[in-house]
From TrEMBL:
A molecular function (GO) term: single-stranded telomeric DNA binding
UniProt lineage: Eukaryota, Fungi, Dikarya, Ascomycota, Pezizomycotina
The keyword DNA repair belongs to this UniProt entry's keyword annotation: yes
Any one annotated GO CC term: Mre11 complex
Name this polypeptide is given: Double-strand break repair protein
Cofactor(s) this protein cannot do without: Mn(2+)
Location relative to the cell: Chromosome; Nucleus
Function field: Core component of the MRN complex, which plays a central role in double-strand break (DSB) repair, DNA recombination, maintenance of telomere integrity and meiosis. The MRN complex is involved in the repair of DNA double-strand breaks (DSBs) via homologous recombination (HR), an error-free mechanism which primarily occurs during S and G2 phases. The complex (1) mediates the end resection of damaged DNA, which generates proper single-stranded DNA, a key initial steps in HR, and is (2) required for the recruitment of other repair factors and efficient activation of ATM and ATR upon DNA damage.
Length: 671
């Protein structure tokens, strides 16, 4: 791609995932992250770039240590401030692309001499939290060292407005989208609630560059950002978050834009993707064309990873014949690790510009993955991995996890026959793709019956879940069944408690027959819903109608069904015999009931349904149906006061509100 004069070329140094502060409590690796970041900033100054673009995770933690903040601010001040004029013309409305006390680009501030402006989005490690929803990048922005953009104030309605820059004849539209939880972002894109703004004039003259910080590969169906979700008017997408360096631009033929994944500048895990050479890039943009210059990060600690299988490696196959092979096995593995250490040193020395003394070579990261699966009747006697790793103190940087032993999982081709499983003939008949779920459930329940919940209703709920896509059918069925059963059991007298198992079985059979005759509503009935809470966040917690707690469970469903059964069959009554083989409905077998005591005078309010009216009293707790969710983060404290007091719900770590006062208020209300 031909480039014209430098007067029309925008030079951008691109880096992502610096993770400053990673391993700072490690006596060996404590300075790795900030040294790599400082090298990148020095490169920006020496290469005379126009700007620096960071793709998120500048810091490893959203509350970085004083040391981490100091090293970043020092490096930015030394390398990015100066008398050199910035040749970029800022054409955007700063109030629309920046947020904070100073809604302006830093190099236009008359009180600060910025030679190389730094633009950055936040990642999943340095995201905003706490009171004020601030992050470390806000501190850098308010100090004039960084331009923090790409904020996402509303995750269910995302608007992305570009930063418009111009140098000579080259116009750059810089789009930024900071990290959003992948599942939520997937849903927002899928629902069409992401809006991109473009320059209003001469749209074909703009080079459209976007930086994101999301999963690039599908961890699950919705836990990533598909490339084809992004608009096809983009020219280049810089992808942060993924640590493997795939910095050469790759063309997406569906959307016709290029994708570049710079990777991290420091290894944060001992995996193969981190062992790839660490690079940053200088992007040269002229008009609608671009060219890339790769630069190796030379201060990155050398890292070599290797995998071996003892059963197939010639050096270890002969050890299978020995009964006690631990010492010989350990010695051979030690030789391999020493070879990897020497390899790492040679690779690091090769990329250095100057000669380095032996004592100045950083200790390498070494990971040896060993598959010690052995044939039947044989064994590889491996040493404790931590003890083995400690052999290399003062030789490697990771002295506790040099080696990783693992075995292949054996597949049992002749499983034991389970008497509680359906016959093989039944399973064979169901092996086709068109198998009916109801038939499959029926066969399994016939072989292994349920003792507490009704089988027919259970099968119906499974069918609703699989065939109708009702993800809460099972949960709603269990909650409803158990609530009716608990209510029935609590009504028993003290003498009947001794025969609780019999009453539970009778109740289950009663529900089975009522369901079979159609007197119990099917799972796909039209549901009545509780009013949606005012503070309900559909994006975080899902649609209110899909929540099992939203469904109004009629307390008198069972009573109405029982009375309907009696009226349908005249004067007969339901009688369930103690004999498991006998279940009849007959007026001849009707048991004599004990004489009823005179009814007590009830208060005027008893027997009537109480209408709960909304109240403005802050100390009043309204009891709503329980809400089961694991995705809420900030609404946990408020929703706690709305839970039914008969249900207890635990909070995972991510659900604990950052607002301690709000959480305490919820506890006081619960009392």
């Amino acid at each position: 791609m031909g480039l014209s004069s430098n007067a029309d070329t925008i030079r951008i140094l691109v880096a992502t995932d610096s993770h400053v502060g990673y391993g700072e409590r490690d006596s060996i690796r404590k300075d790795d992250s900030w040294k790599s970041f400082d090298e990148v900033m020095q490169l920006a100054k020496s290469q005379d770039v126009d700007m620096v673009l960071l793709g998120g995770d500048l810091f490893h933690e959203n509350k970085p240590s004083k040391k981490s903040m100091y090293q970043v601010m020092r490096s930015l001040r030394q390398n990015c401030l100066g008398d050199k004029p910035c040749e970029l013309e800022f054409l955007s409305d700063a109030s629309e692309v920046f947020d904070g006390a100073f809604n302006s680009v830093n190099y236009e501030d008359p009180d600060i001499n910025v030679a190389i402006p730094v633009f950055s989005i936040h990642g999943n490690h340095d995201d905003p939290t706490g009171d004020g929803n601030l992050c470390a990048l806000d501190l850098l922005q308010v100090s004039g060292l960084c331009n923090y953009f790409g904020r996402i104030p509303e995750v269910d309605k995302i608007e992305i407005k570009p930063i418009l820059l111009q140098k000579g004849l080259t116009k750059l539209a810089l789009f930024g989208m900071s990290n959003v939880r992948d599942e939520r972002l997937f849903r927002t894109f899928r629902d069409g609630n992401v809006k991109f703004f473009r320059p209003g004039v001469q749209q074909k003259d703009w080079f459209n560059l976007m930086v994101v910080h999301q999963n690039h590969h599908a961890r699950s169906e919705t836990s990533y950002l598909p490339e084809n979700f992004l608009p096809d008017f983009l020219d280049l997408v810089i992808w942060g978050h993924e640590h493997e360096c795939l910095i050469d631009p790759r063309l997406n033929h569906e959307t016709n834009f290029h994708v570049m994944q710079p990777g991290s500048s420091v290894a944060t895990s001992l995996v193969a993707g981190e062992a790839v050479a660490k690079n940053v890039a200088i992007l040269n943009i002229t008009g609608r064309e671009f060219k890339l210059e790769k630069h190796r990060i030379k201060s990155a600690r050398p890292f070599v990873i290797k995998e071996i299988a003892l059963q197939t490696d010639p050096r270890f196959k002969k050890l299978l014949k020995l009964k006690d092979n631990r010492s010989l096995l350990t010695n051979e593995l030690e030789k391999i690790v020493l070879e990897l250490i020497q390899q790492a040193k040679n690779e690091w020395l090769y990329i250095q510009d100057e000669e380095v003394e032996e004592k100045d070579i950083p200790l390498p990261l070494i990971r040896l993955k060993v598959d010690y699966t052995a044939p039947d009747g044989c064994k590889f006697d491996c040493e404790n991995p931590r003890r083995f790793s400690n052999r290399f103190v003062n030789k490697v940087a990771n002295i506790t996890d040099v080696v990783h032993f693992h075995k292949k999982t054996k597949i049992n081709h002749a499983p034991n026959v389970d008497k509680k499983m359906p016959d093989e003939s039944v399973l064979a008949a169901m092996s086709g793709d068109s198998v009916k779920v109801g038939k499959l459930v029926h066969e399994f329940l016939t072989a292994q019956s349920l003792k507490i919940i009704p089988q027919a209703q259970f099968g119906d709920a499974v069918t609703q879940y699989v065939e109708k896509g009702d993800s809460h059918a099972m949960e709603a069925f269990v909650n409803e069944s158990l609530s009716h059963q608990v209510k029935e059991m609590l009504a028993l007298d003290e003498d009947s408690i001794e025969h609780l198992d019999e009453y539970m079985e009778r109740f289950r059979k009663k529900r089975e027959e009522m369901f079979a005759t159609g007197l119990l509503k099917k799972a796909n009935r039209e549901r009545k819903l509780h009013p949606r809470p005012v503070n309900w966040d559909s994006d975080e917690q899902g649609e209110w109608a899909d929540q099992p707690g939203a469904v109004i469970v009629e307390e008198d469903d069972e009573t109405n069904a029982s009375s309907a059964l009696s009226s349908k069959r005249g004067k007969t009554s339901l009688f369930i015999s103690d004999d498991e083989n006998l279940s009849t409905i007959s007026s001849l077998q009707k048991k004599k009931s004990a004489p009823k005591k005179p009814a007590k005078n009830l208060p005027s309010s008893q027997g009537r349904k109480k209408i709960v009216k909304p109240t403005n009293d802050k100390n009043t707790t309204q009891n709503l149906a329980p809400i089961f969710t694991q995705r809420s983060q900030r609404g946990a404290a408020t929703r706690a006061s709305q839970l039914n007091n008969r249900v207890s719900m635990g909070l995972i770590e991510d659900e604990i509100s950052d607002d301690n006062d709000a959480f305490g208020e919820a506890i006081r209300r619960g009392r």
